[in-house]
Amino acid sequence: MKTFDKQTLSANKEYLELLGNKFRNIPAATAEIINLNAILNLPKGTEHFISDIHGEYGAFEHILRNCSGSIRRKVTETLKDKLDEDQLNEMITVIYYPQQKIKLLKEQNIIDDSWYERTIKNLIEVCKVASSKYSHSKIRKSFPENYSYIIQELMFKSDINGDRENYYNQIIRSMIDTDACEDFIIKISETIRKLCLDHLHIVGDIYDRGYAPHMVMDTLMNYHTIDIQWGNHDILWIGAAAGNAACIANAVRICMRYGNTGILEDAYGINIIPLTMFAMNTYPDTDLELFMPKISDEIPDLDDIILAKMQKAISIIQFKLENEVIDRNPEYGMEDRKLIDKVNYENYTLNIDGTEYKLNTESFPTIDPDDPAKLTEEEEKVINSLVSSFTSSEKLRSHIEFMLNTGGIYLLCNKNLLLHACVPMNDDYSFTEVVLEGEKYKGKALLDKVDEMARKAYYSSNENTDIFWYLWCAPTSPLFGKDKMATYERYFINDKATHKERYTPFYKHLDDRAMAVIIMNEFGLNANESHIICGHVPVKIIKGENPVKAEGKIICIDGGFAKAYQKETGIAGCTLTYNSYGMNLIMHEPFNSIEESVTHGLDIKSESRFVDSSEKRLLVSDTDTGEKLKKQIYYLEMLLYAYRSGELAPKK
Q1: d(C-alpha 652, C-alpha 26), whole Å
Q2: Which residues pair with 439 in a beta bridge?
Q3: How far apart are alpha carbons 187 and 146 in whole angstroms?
Q4: How far apart are CA 19 and CA 144, in angstroms?
Q5: Which pLDDT tens digit goes with each residue over 552-610?
Q6: Exposed end of the chain (fewer CB within 10 Å): N or C?
Q7: Which pLDDT tens digit goes with each residue over 146-197?
Q8: Among 577, 586, 585, residue whose Cα is nearest residue 618
């Protein structure tokens, strides 16, 4: 038995007394020490990393349900000797989409009592395999409350002499007789999906471009264990929910650009009627080809002409508001982005870096050349209405506060650094120094500071919410990583040279292991056993780019979930899994639809490859959870010694 000196016991007496309220005597403390030591020797659970979802709910939901292919592998390994290929596909689809698949099979008159019996027995076998790396206690906690007893009996059955076979068969028979099979199959399928993945990491950018970020958020809020590293598109919506007018204008403009009015009106109850009426009454039917909506998976409530006018109207409002933000915050160093008041409105030209560019339109009905950045009275009414709608949307608030409560700018987890975009750096690999609130910050301290400022800005009415706009698009923002956001140039200058957004040094040197080592040292990580996992910049697989950078130290998992990026990447998203054997990178082809998956058993086609395989199988003891358990064991052993030495009296 481990011993402790009196000084240590005395220093920890108050905590030991509190711990003793839960573990009241020697048997209770002993049992917990045995349990925790056993858990330390279980295999490490599987972590699942997804980045840059950008509202693509269908593909995201399917990848969650198939656990990036791990469920298909488990079902095949478990049942390949019992089922043919069609039967395996049916079983896999039942686990993915139990309600939809059962409904279809009923319509086809395929389901009968024998189908229920076979399916339940097969699901129990798959559930056994999926739960093999967890303690019985954790497994039981994952079971649905109403069926916990039944699943335990069927999974952990012991029937050496065959005496209980009728008992187990009768459990299933009774489910059939009481019409409980369908509900049971739905619940155990959900349990299998939970057990296949121990934890979900979302590495930023849930919002914008795709049609349903709100549905992604609904799914995440019901997920069993999750963290979120904020992306710049997420921070934009956090700023919008906090009432920052520049963030709101950007968010609305992007919705107009991709024809996603349903996100605003139907999902979050944002009133866009004032913007619609203002745009229709103010902007003529000229130059609208510059503002036609791009890819959309929904049929907009408004036609393209109206959406184009609304996009132009909110864009001009945005540029005016951004001027105000830059004027309020000179420490952001973004004076060069005040383009709207640098235009020569006599000949409609703009001088950028010494070159004169002709604008592609002269139609600016709300701009006063003497004060270009001043909002008109009508524009003020529009933005005030939008601010009121955003800040009063209860559903948006619930989504944003969930993101704030479960996420942050970065995360250190199991010896890896997770962050959406970058750590601001200089070309010599020193960290970029940024002035915020009058103080200088760089490296890890900068990321900690902006995390703190974002939380304060959202929850305190006295804080400056411009920090959200800074994080959205500033060159020194750890969520952006480019020298500028060229929105104005893309709209109003045809010369594509002005559209170029140049990456900051983090991305320019992404393949250099030396840079990765410097960053990992800054965050207290051992470069020999750690990785940086990020997204933000789509990896152009179609052009031969490798998502694994810096000799395996940096893994970029933005593979283009958003349809807008898929021509650029050549795939439809990357995901990463990290289990007891190592890291596996999965590259996905486009997802068709849930209907096709249910009807034809079609899955997302994916290619996987090991990124980093462990020399030995990783155990819970090798993880952050393991470190917490070791600390618990230490204090439990101290409590046990205190009981046995008479320093603390056990309770009855």
Answers
A1: 10
A2: 436
A3: 9
A4: 30
A5: 999 999 888 877 778 888 888 889 999 998 999 988 888 777 788 888 777 766 777 77
A6: C
A7: 888 888 888 877 656 666 778 888 999 999 999 999 999 999 999 999 888 8
A8: 577
